[in-house]
Structures are given as structure tokens and as C-alpha cells.
Amino acid sequence: MSVPRLRSSPALRSGARDSLPVAVASLLIGISFGISAHAAGMPGLAAVVMSAIVFAGSAQFAAVAVLSQGGSVVAAVLAATLMNARYLAMGFALGPWLKGGPVRRAFEGQIVSDAAWAIANLGQGRFDRHRLFGSTAVQYVTWIPGTALGVLAGGVVPDPQALGIDAVFPAMFLALLAGEMRDAEAFGVAVAGAVVAVVLTITAPAGIGILAAAVVSLVGLRPRRVA
Amino acid sequence: MSTAEKSWLVVGLCTLTAFGTRAFGPAAVTRVPLSPRLLRVLSLLPAALLAALVATNTIVSDAAVQVGPRAGGVAFAGVLIWRRASIITIVVGAAAMAALLRLVT
To answer: Residue A227: is its pLDDT beyond 60?
Structure first.
């Protein structure tokens, strides 16, 4: 399948620019993934390949965590897959804004990460695919070398936590969430989504919480009250 | 099976499931939905998902609620957002605050 050439556009560049701090975080989190994978006994090349083609930090950490505890292949894959469940919901929101037929859309849909999806979100249910591609591009080029560095140089790199890197993603999501607070209904949905996600993340298998939070948005199906 | 063999198998299978999970929505929703109700749901979806991502990435660690330095960093991000700071300032400020709180606690 030929990959359509994507010309540079202002949206592509702005998506990349807005994602630069995330790209730095992605490098450091990549390093810590490499270290974890190496410690779990995963071959270095397998860890790098996983970053390059699975490209989903939390799912990769989940799979490695299961492997490091001596869990089965099925358990590791299941943990990673559940962790990625939120991409089902994100894909539905994004779908209408991608290009081409189902097959091309399925491939364009691979370019999703949490941060890229959030950066591409223009509000009012609208998404800009160029911002999505720009955001993923800068994360991708740091995530893979980060993983390789972690595998090779584990132990000599700083602990991402000490640098406060773990606050980067939630801070960015919070900034984008603020832009979504258009009316009381959106605010209510956000509060309910947060509560559902936290409760289920603590009680249900990892990854289910965020997908379940998406279900809250179905309140939009209620018939509108005509004021 | 050795850990190396298991690892490669996990990578291969995760590739398939990750592809399917990301492909499903885009392949299923191939045009801008015309139903106003569906549009309403899709416009509320980011609020629900972003709030879920913020909450779980801020106060949940190891399947328990933990309010620590990271939550302090994200709270500081909230102040910066309210002061209309740029996204770069917000993110760097949150990381710096979390690092600082870790240093002093």
C-alpha cells in the first residue's frame, strides 16, 4: 500500500510545535520503558520494535510488567490490549475527520497517541488530522531512540520522576480539557468521566476506566430541551 | 518458552491488537455524522476522555488513590491555565513544581 505523501502545512507544524514538551517527556518515558523491558528479560531489539510498531506507552509498560512477574503471553497481551481500550473511543471521535475509505482510515487511525489525539482536538467534536500527524511525528522520533537508550544505558540516565516528567501528560490534558468547558453539560460530563475513570482504575482491570468514562458522553443522546 | 521467545510473541500479538483497536473507530465512522445527537455525543467525548486521563494520570498510582508531588504539579498547571499561560509554560511549570515538591518532601 502506497503511503500518500503529506505536504507540510501550518496545522502540521503547529501540532508538532505544541507537542515539543510532550516529545521531551516521551524521550524520558521511552528511556524508562527501555530500562523496564531490559530488566524484565525482554531482548533489546524486541523492546525497540515494540515501541516502533505498538507505539503505546501505557500498554507497553503493562505488557512488560506482566512478563517481569513471570506471567503468560496471553496475560501480557490482554493487559496491553485493555490498556489500549481507550483508543476505541478516541477512534470513533476522530473517524469522521480522517481521509479516504475504511482501509486508508484504519491506517491513518494508527497515528493516534493520547497526546496527539488531545492536540488534534479542536473542540465541538472537531479534529484536525494534520495536527494529529504533526504531534505524533515529534513523539515518535523521541520515543524510539528513548527506548533504545533505556535498553543500552539503563542505570546511567536520570529518573524521569525526579524531573517531574510524570506531571507532563496530565498537565497537558488538563490544559486541553479547560478548552472543552463550554457549558454546564460539558463540565458535568468531565466530572462524571473523571469519577468513573478513577473508581474503575482502582477496582477494574487496568485500562477499563478510561473507556468506561467515554460512555458518560452518551448523555448527549438525550433529547434537547427547547428553551 | 524462554523469556526472549515470549517477548517476541507478546510484541507480535500486541501489534495486532493495537492495530485493531486503533483501526476500529476510523474504519467504522467513515463520514461526518449527520445526526445532531451523534454529533452532540462526539463533541462531549473529549471532555469525558480528557477528564478521565487527567484524573487517572494525576491521583492514581498502583491501583490506589495517591495525592503526592505529581498532583501538586498538576494543580500548579491548573493555576497557570487559569492565568492563561502558554501550553509550553503550563507543561514545564507542572514538571518543575512536581520535581520541586519531590525534592522537599
So the answer is: no
